Amino acid sequence: MKNAARAVFQNNELLRHLDSAGIDRVVQLATRRSYDQGAAIFTEGDPAEAIYGVISGQVQISARTSGNGEIFLDAYGSGRIFGLISGIDGLLRCTTARAAPTAEVFAICRDQFLRLIAAEPRLSLGLLAVFCQRQRVVTGLIVGEYAQRDIPARLAHRVLELTGVDPSGKSCLDITQAELAKFVFVSRQVVNHYLSEWHSRGWVAKSPRHLRVTDRQALRAVATSADARI
Q: What is d(CA 178, CA 155) in angstroms, rounded to the nearest whole number?
């Protein structure tokens, strides 16, 4: 288990400033947890008891709207850290984290994590880097993705962002069209329309719960077009 923890935490965005001994201290604090399909790791309004790192699978982050709807904010794969905001300030969770479809994670108790920050000043550098990077993402969502882009550009941008590229060179995502629609604030039917068109053009390959990007350059052109239209 400890070897798996080290593999996850090594070169992680939060922990990359730590030396080997510092990584070892983090590993000693981590406990492993498994979540079945759709299980909640924490829900909006819960007390903050821990921070988490994804070992395998995927974790989706969502929030409730004022009309009691749900929007998806992000998806984290192996090596990513989540639950940091409440894990640092101690306030109630402002988002929900669910396994999507399943996930194995490491948890570090909040009190232990705060003591670790005090003992490892270099960890603060990692925290600052993570929060700055995520603030840039939020700013991009507000200014670019939702204020200036039309639907196909928003969808292409989100698909590219969520799939990423794994070490094998593939560009895949386990997600339903209904879930993807919540990332872009549109209906499932709208998502299906554009994915079907992109599938026919050879840009993506889709199945009920799987999406693979086959032409990232084509989607990148849609995502950055000032007037992206199909």
A: 13
